[in-house]
Design a protein that fits this description.
The chain is 36% helix and 15% strand. By secondary structure, the protein is an alpha/beta fold.
Length: 389
Amino acid sequence: MQDGRIPIYQVIQEYIKNQITTGFWKIGDKILTEKELMEKFDVSRITVSNALTGLAKEGWLHRIQGKGSYVQEMKKPLENSAVGSGSSALSGAQQPDSRRIIGLIIPKLSDFFSIRLNSSITKALSQTGYNLVLMFSENSTEREAVAIRELLGMGAAGLIIFPADAETYNEEILRLKLDRFPFVIIDRYLSGIDTHFIGSDGVEASRLAVNHLYELGHRDIAICSDVPLSTTTIEQRVSGYMKALKELGELINPALMLTEFHINHDETEIDQQHPLFRYVKNGLATAYIALNGYMAMHLYKIVRFLGLEVPKDLSIVTFDSQSPSKEFNFFTYIDQHEHEVGRTAVEQLLDLLQHHGHSSSETKYRKIIMQPHLVPSLSTAPLPLHTNK
C-alpha cells in the first residue's frame, strides 16, 4: 500500500499464512478463534471475519460454521507465494530462472515494521527483473541458517538478511562472507563481523525518547525489552538511554532498566505474577520506553487491566509505528525509516551484484546508518504536578 497504509486484515492474513508456511499450524489444525484473533490484534469481529473469508477463498483455510477455521491442503501451488509477490515464501519452490532470485530472510511478518520493510523491498525490486523469495526465521538462528542454505540451493543471486535477535549469529552468515557471496544485513548489526549493513542509529533513537519524556517532566523513565541484552540492537538502545540520562545530569537507576525477563506475546491473559506487571502496578516509573512494538502493546494492556490510562497515568514511547497508517498512530514512536532502509538495501545489493566477481584487492564494507526521529502522539503527555517527586 502507498504511504505505509496497510489494511489490518492483511496483517492478520500474513500472520496466519506465516504460521502455516512455517509449519506451526499443519493441515487439519484448528487456528485461533475469531475472538482470540480480535484480542491479539485489538480489532473488530468484522475485520477478523474479512481476513478469514479472504484466506478461505484463497484456499488456505476451511471454515466450519460454529466450529472455527481449519488449515486445509492447497489444491494447487500458490501463485506468487514464493517468488514475485514478496509475501509468504514456500521452501523448495522451483523457478525457471533461479539466478534472477533475491532472497529476503526476516524473523516474521506479524508487525507493521516488518510489513513496511518487506513492502519497500518488493517495490524496489519490482522494476529490476529480479524476483523476491521471502523466508521466515521465526527469530531462530537455526531456522535462519536453514533458510540461507535453501535460498542458495534455489540459486539465489543475492540475499537481504534481517537477523534473528540472538546472542550470536549463525555460521552460515560467516560462510557467506568468506565466500564473498553478495548479501546485505539490515536493522540488526552483527558485532565482530564486518558486512554490508543498513539500519537506524539505535543510540540516537533512545536519546530522542528520553529527551522527549524528560521535557514532559518525567524523571522516573524505565526502558524495557524482553530481547537478550547482548544483542547489538538492544545494546545500542540501552547505551543511548544511559547516555541521554548522563547528559541531562540524572543518575542512572539500574532498577529502571527492565531487560531481564521474557514475555509470551501469544498469551491473551495478563500474568499478574510477572515482574513487569508488578513493576507497573507499584508505580515505580511514570514513563516507559518500549524497545519493540510487542512490548508497547503489552504495557498498554497491563495499564488498562489495572484500570489506569495512557497517557494520563503513564506515558509510553515505542520503537516503530504500531498502526497500519502512520498518520493515525496512538503511540509516540521512533521512526526508523524502514521504507528507506528497504529501498537502500536493494540498491546496495544490486550494486554488489553488478560488481560481483570483479577482481579487487580488498572488500570495502559499507555501513549505512539512518538517523531516526521521534513522532509525538497520544501515548505521551506532561507529568501531572501531583506525581512529581
